[in-house]
Design a protein that fits this description.
Elements (H helix, E strand, L loop, with lengths): L13 H14 L3 H9 L31 H19 L7 H8 L8 H25 L6 H26 L14 E4 L8 H5 L8 H12 L7 E2 L10 E4 L3 E9 L2 E9 L6 H23 L4 H34 L1
Parallel strand pairs: 1-5
Antiparallel strand pairs: 2-3, 3-4, 4-5
Helix pairs in contact: 1-5, 3-5, 4-6, 5-6, 8-10
Length: about 325
């Protein structure tokens, strides 16, 4: 379906919108055709900035080959797109919609900014296309109330794309595009109120400290070493982990640049039965405090506390490398 312009459906009658849908549906019937139109810049400049060779890989929208992009980096990009899209999708129409969208979108200094924005717009265009198809397919049976709901959603999604374009194209003063990402680590607590990571580190051998620090650093700088998403178990959905040879750090994104550290541990074998049960328990405990953590992200005192916990944890992790240096120096002196 080819959309020639952004239409204000609130001004159209039911008969008019059905007519327009039928006309559009005759031009194309699949999302593949829609994407091909987008690649040619044929959405009245909504997607004119999306170049054919720059479209992000997404299994539900468009298939593309990126020899230079690793599976890990693609997975991170898709997670970013989904995070922003889901938050934008929740927004209802309001006078301050522009500001709300701007607050949600990533910083223009993020090196994946343009790829994420393209991916978000493609998601909304896919939603519009699917709504058109549903209305057209059920046009004989759909009620006036349901049709009005679809019209409202299509209009809102179009408006969001329009506002995203305005925000994307607005020039910001003194923007450094290549500025590195710095994410905040937010630490979960045990049922007794202790910081879980600081409690768990007491039961982990020092030989794994440097590896755990590398994993935590990868969350902070956004590189996410050996990232894995838990998608094959209902209790784990939405949670991810970074991993080294035996070390694991399990986390969940709870804000634009905030990641909750759920648990850290050593996985001795792939057949460790107690590992999954323990992981589910840790995640369930996290879910009980997730809303509170999200609501506290705007509290400067809360962020300062978590930075202190991070510093305390890093002092412990760095202690292992100091001990190794002391041992080596002692051996040389003998």
């Amino acid at each position: 379906m080819r959309i020639n312009k952004i239409t204000d459906f609130s001004t159209m009658s039911i008969e008019d919108i059905i007519t327009e849908i039928e006309q559009n549906q005759r031009k194309a019937s699949t999302m593949k055709a829609e994407i091909e139109k987008i690649k040619l810049g044929d959405i009245n400049n909504i997607a004119s900035d999306i170049k054919k060779d720059e479209l992000p890989t997404s299994p539900t929208i468009v298939t593309a080959d990126y020899p230079s992009i690793t599976e890990e980096s693609t997975s991170i990009l898709e997670e970013d797109i989904d995070f922003y899209y889901q938050n934008l999708k929740k927004l209802i129409n309001s006078p301050d919609l522009y500001e709300k969208i701007k607050d949600i979108l990533p910083s223009k200094t993020d090196y994946t900014y343009n790829e994420v924005i393209r991916g978000i717009k493609l998601r909304f265009l896919k939603d519009i296309n699917e709504n058109y198809q549903i209305i057209n397919y059920f046009k004989e049976d759909i009620s006036a109330a349901d049709l009005e709901e679809f019209k409202t959603q299509i209009t809102l999604d179009n408006e969001k794309i329009k506002l995203i374009n305005l925000i994307q194209n607005k020039k910001e003063p003194s923007v450094t595009v290549n500025e590195k990402t710095v994410n905040e680590l937010i630490f979960t607590t045990t049922s007794g109120g202790n910081i879980r990571a600081l409690e768990e580190i007491n039961y982990i051998s020092q030989e794994f400290y440097s590896s755990l620090k590398i994993l935590l650093d990868s969350i902070i700088d956004g590189t996410f070493k050996n990232l894995k998403h838990f998608n094959n178990h209902n209790d784990l959905v939405g949670v991810s982990q970074v991993k080294d040879y035996q070390t694991r750090v399990v986390f969940k994104r709870i804000g634009k640049n905030a990641y909750a550290i759920i648990t850290m541990f050593i996985k001795k074998s792939d057949n460790d039965k107690g590992y999954k049960l323990n992981l589910i328990n840790r995640i369930n405990e996290f879910r009980n405090q997730e809303d509170r953590l999200k609501q506290s992200l705007d509290n400067e005192e809360f962020i300062a506390e978590n930075r202190h916990y991070k510093e305390e944890l890093y002092n412990i992790l760095l202690q292992s490398s100091k001990n190794k240096t002391l041992i080596k120096v002692g051996e040389d002196n003998e």
